[in-house]
Write a structure and sequence with these properties.
single chain, mainly beta, SH3 type barrels, Porin, 3 domains, ten-stranded antiparallel sheet, eight-stranded antiparallel β-barrel, 5 helices, about 50% strand
Length: about 425
């Protein structure tokens, strides 16, 4: 039976099982109901890049799953993050001139009840909300009072010559009024950017004004380093090119086989987790038999390539910044190491009917090379499906005999 006849059904079944498991990621947590009663169980945690509109709660006592929205809860806690249900007025804004100039953009405020992620607080609390487009809004709240948006205003400026946009950072004057009783922060407020880290640091400093206190950790950033088992399918080809027979006449068919290995995924500290560094080690076996090449009227040659390769790929990955299912692109360097080489050259003397066997390329067989690797794919939660291509100078170190190696991968991985 051909490997590919069973590979695709097996691979698809594996992918869909991984995809299904990625759809649910229940972790320990609790809910606070409007009555102030607390329910402990598990919450389907999606490592949200936009604020969740609803959550799924599994009551571990009954096995029943219930969906809750902001109107159903006072707050919930999962995976180190605390979310409060707040009724607020949102003033839309954007820093993107293209979005500001589109017909779809409106800065008209609206009332809504939403979940908001708690960042830090004591006397003055800071919350974060990300809408469906990934735009971040920050809210301040004194305990027991409504939450107020720290505002950025997008204004359109039109003249006879051109049209442009101005982004008024009103939040700085709001913060100056909110934190007026801490004189030490006056200079910091004038420089603070509209970003989570900067605002959280400022709020922490205000709540500890006059104290020699360092913020240790007030918000859970989530895991950034993951172990990634990988399994997939490989199409590999050696292209032998040389200036004289029999090398120039030899061709090797592509070899199709399974591939697999393991790696590490490190997500760089960006709010939407769109940047990452990926390294993995893949094991492949290559076996291919060439056609016959004629060196002269008396001699014919053919080659059997038979060896193992270990490919260590180091790549930089960019993921689309929003959504649960996120496409990605990646690229970097590939390191290839050959082990277990059993490649041979068969020389047949037609006149003498003699067969001789030699180690292919002899001392010119290259066992290590560096090439490039690039790919594209899609991730759903922690499961990833990707297509990857790599190419390197290949197995020959002899001048005039080029043997570049080209690999095409279809891979499935899961971040543990």
């Amino acid at each position: 039976m051909k490997p590919c006849s069973v590979f695709y059904p097996t691979l698809l079944c594996l992918f869909f099982s991984l995809f299904a498991s990625a759809q649910k990621n229940f972790q320990d947590g609790f809910l606070v109901l409007p009555s102030n009663d607390t329910l402990r169980g598990q919450i389907d945690y999606r490592e949200w890049t936009t604020t969740p509109r609803k959550i799924s709660f599994l009551d571990t006592r009954t096995g029943r799953t219930t969906v809750y929205g902001p109107e159903d809860l006072r707050s919930f806690y999962v995976s180190g993050d605390y979310y409060a249900s707040l009724s607020v007025r949102i003033y839309p804004y954007t820093f993107d001139p293209v979005v500001a100039g589109s017909d779809d953009f409106s800065d008209r405020p609206y009332e809504v009840q939403v979940f908001m992620r708690y960042l830090t607080g004591d006397r003055l609390e800071l919350y974060h909300y990300a809408d469906t487009t990934g735009v971040s809004y920050f809210f301040s709240r004194r305990k027991g009072a409504p939450a107020d948006q720290l505002r950025v205003i997008t204004r359109k400026i039109e003249t006879t010559e051109k049209t442009g946009f101005v982004f008024d950072e009103v939040y700085r004057s709001q913060l100056a009024a909110l934190m007026a009783d801490c004189e030490a922060l006056r200079k910091n407020i004038g420089r603070v950017s509209y970003k989570e880290g900067a605002l959280r640091q400022l709020f922490f400093a205000y709540n500890n004004c006059g104290k020699d206190t360092v913020e240790k950790s007030t918000v859970h950033a989530g895991r950034r380093l993951f172990f990634t088992p990988v399994i997939g399918y490989l199409n590999s080809r050696i292209s032998l090119g040389a200036g004289s027979p029999p090398w120039s006449q030899m061709q090797f068919p592509a070899y199709n086989t399974f591939s697999g290995g393991a790696g590490m995924l490190y997500i760089l500290p960006r709010q939407r987790q769109q940047l990452a560094i990926l390294t993995d080690l893949l094991y492949n076996h290559f076996h291919s038999h060439s056609n016959f090449g004629r060196a002269n009227d008396y001699l014919t040659d053919d080659v059997t390539l038979d060896y193992n390769t270990w490919n260590l790929d180091l790549q930089f990955r960019y993921r689309f910044p929003t959504g649960y299912i996120r496409p990605f692109l990646e690229g970097g360097f590939s390191n290839s190491l050959v082990t277990g080489n059993k490649s041979i050259r068969h020389e047949h003397d037609v006149v003498g009917d003699r067969n001789d066997y030699y180690s292919f390329l002899g001392d010119g067989f290259q066992k290590y090379w560096i090439g490039w690797v690039a790919g594209a794919g899609v991730s759903a939660g922690r499961a990833s499906l990707e297509f990857r291509a790599s190419r390197g100078p290949g197995i020959s170190s002899i001048n005039g005999i080029a043997a570049p190696a080209t690999n095409f991968y279809f891979l499935i991985s899961y971040a543990l």
